[in-house]
Write a structure and sequence with these properties.
Layout (H helix, E strand, L loop, with lengths): L2 H8 L10 H11 L3 H11 L3 H7 L3
Length: 58
C-alpha cells in the first residue's frame, strides 16, 4: 500500500475522488466491494470515506 493511501485510510475526513481509477481500485480492494457497489454507495451517501465505510458495512 502506498504511503498516500495509508494516510487516506487513516483520515476520517478523506473524500474519494470517484473519477480517480487508482482510488476506486484501492477502496474496492480495501473493502472487498465491486465498482458498482462502491459507485452506488457514493450516489447514496457522497464521497466521504468514513460515510462510505458505514454505508458499505466495513
Amino acid at each position: 500500500m502506498s504511503k498516500e493511501f495509508e494516510d487516506m485510510a487513516l483520515d476520517a475526513d478523506t473524500e474519494l475522488d470517484i473519477n480517480d481509477l487508482s482510488q476506486l481500485q484501492y477502496w474496492m480492494h480495501e473493502w472487498d466491494v465491486s465498482e458498482r457497489d462502491l459507485r452506488m454507495a457514493v450516489a447514496n451517501v457522497g464521497t466521504e470515506v468514513s460515510e462510505l465505510r458505514v454505508a458499505l458495512g466495513r
